[in-house]
Design goal:
Low-confidence stretches: 1-16, 18-28, 43-52
Number of domains: 2
Strand order of the largest sheet: 3-5-4-6
Mean pLDDT: 76
Order of helices and strands: HHHHEEEHEEHEHH
Distance between the termini: 139 Å
Strand content: 5-15%
Helix content: 40-55%
Oligomer: single chain
Largest sheet: 4 strands, mixed
Shape: elongated
Number of helices: 8
Number of strands: 6
């Protein structure tokens, strides 16, 4: 490399200098260079391309730990069994001459199954990362490209960057195909990952908070507001009521006492007579 006047410190600098430095050209229009330089440039270009289509090391470690976690395996197994029923029913109702076991059908037009599992999403948000969804065609390569599926997919916390999310489906498709034994789970290569935006989540939280405050104020107004007065009637307190003479209350007590004594005398007379 040094003999040809190319000094590089990284793959990007080397490849750019390799292709941009003027050299004598052959009859085909390509620069005249030794074969080993062409091989090196090819490997560097392929390496950059592979790096752009893969996830980060932190994301791969987190994803591997998640898919091997016993709690995730149990929840994902139940989710898979549930989603298979939904997808097979959609294929039977929407497609013509559908064969779910082979993944073939005819007449699948605008057929879409939704497998968004609330328990799976809650577990993902609580313990692993962020609950997202994958939009894909599970039988696109076997004979039913018109059947679409939107299913829950857990994105680890270390895979939430834009670059990792962009490459996550291709990495998951290639690296974990052995653990996906069902035919409708084989193809994730063309899956589109959809994750809720943090801005949308914040706006929703603010909206729910404001709505809760408004409802609380409305309930307090109903509870503490005085009842409406009836037409033609007025409400007065005990202090505003009419004043009764003191002897009236005393006379009432005397009459009540005499009535009680008379009742006791009558009862005693009847008992003696008997």
């Amino acid at each position: 490399m040094k003999d040809h006047g190319v000094l590089f410190t990284s793959a990007d600098k080397w490849t750019s200098s390799f292709f941009l430095t003027p050299r004598r050209r052959t009859h085909s229009g390509l620069p005249r260079r030794p074969l080993h330089q062409w091989v090196c440039a090819l490997f560097f270009s392929l390496g950059k391309l592979a790096h752009a289509q893969t996830t980060s090391a932190q994301c791969r470690t987190a994803l591997d730990g998640m898919v091997r976690d016993p709690n995730y395996v149990l929840a994902h197994t139940r989710f898979t069994d549930w989603c298979r029923i939904i997808l097979e029913n959609e294929m039977a109702n929407c497609c013509t001459d559908g064969d779910f076991a082979r993944g073939t059908s005819e007449g699948c037009t605008d057929c879409s199954a939704v497998c968004v599992h609330q328990h799976m999403d809650s577990m993902c948000n609580s313990y692993f990362g962020k609950a997202c969804a994958v939009l894909r065609a599970p039988f696109a390569n076997s004979g039913a490209p018109g059947l679409k599926l939107r299913e829950s997919f857990c994105v680890p916390e270390d895979c939430t960057t834009a670059a990792d999310r962009e490459a996550l489906m291709r990495w998951y498709h290639t690296s974990y195909r052995a653990i996906r034994t069902n035919n409708w789970q084989l193809d994730y290569n063309d899956g589109v990952l959809e994750c809720p935006s943090a801005v949308a989540t914040a706006i929703l939280a603010v909206f729910v908070t404001i709505l809760g405050i408004v409802l609380l104020v409305w309930i307090m107004i109903i509870l503490f507001k005085a009842p409406p007065k009836e037409r033609g009637k007025s409400t007065i307190t005990q202090a505003e009521g009419p004043e009764y003479p003191a002897n009236t209350a005393a006379g009432f007590d005397s009459d009540l006492r005499r009535t009680a004594e008379g009742a006791d005398t009558l009862s005693s007379t009847r008992v003696g007579a008997s």
